[in-house]
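[stage:ingest] chain + small molecule (S-adenosylmethionine)
[stage:ingest] validated
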Amino acid sequence: MSAIKRIKSFVKNTPLIGKLAEKVYRQFVPGPEKYIFTRFGWEKESQESGKPEVQQILNLLNYTKTSGASYAAKKYPAGYHSLEIEGSIIKGQRDPFNRLKRLEIDFAGLRVLDIGCNQGGMLFSLYDRIKWGVGVDYDYRLINCCSKIGYQTGKNNKLSFYSFNIDHDPHEIILDMLPEPVKKVDVVFLLAVCMWVEKWREIIDLCAAISPVLVFESNGSPEVQAGQIAHVKSRYSEVEMIEDSNNGNRQLMVARNDP
Ligand SMILES: C[S@@+](CC[C@H](N)C(=O)[O-])C[C@H]1O[C@@H](n2cnc3c(N)ncnc32)[C@H](O)[C@@H]1O
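[stage:predict] done
[stage:export] tokens:
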């Protein structure tokens, strides 16, 4: 990577500084077009999809794209995660099934917590295998999608989703969102979240306190990711790197402690 590209990537991916630099830059250079939300009706002639229930989900998914976040994936029909609804795949930027295939974890009967769960795609994909799953995210639009998809697909008997802000909420309150009063879960996902939050060290600490297995994906500049990975390594005794995802923009790994 050239020096200029490295500096740009460092500034862009450094929490707070990145946001500030973007604001200043946008004073001079217009940004990408803002996503304009259109709600489609359920009547046959105005639907994007054949079924009113699917149209409800599509409307909620489209509404998440108004967040303006770079991961809102507005070019994709589903947004961030590809989702299977009523037997058809709605394509998103990332495919949870492919991602899960890369992990050598037997999820059968496990209790899984997904911190920064987005539209819940990882947990919806694991539904058949796990004991239960809880997803938390700070964006209410995403949690609304998770609730609706959970209800519509009948997966809400095992999966629940809550609004939770890593930077503003007490981290241990997550324990009160679990479907049973337990102090540990079997696996936590913390995937491509850390560069977006200030309290990333503290949330990794919580993961280590409540779960022997952390599936972690680093994100941000190479330096930022190195810091995240070092912190994970300081909290878990074994860290298995899964092959590099997305040309080093993110790295997937499984961290383990003795249960
Ligand atoms: C790049 S997406 C990754 C989504 C998901 N973890 C995955 O990789 O499949 C980042 C996620 O972090 C969530 N997020 C960002 N800031 C957060 C915060 N302060 N508290 C909780 N979630 C946050 C976003 O809403 C978004 O769903």
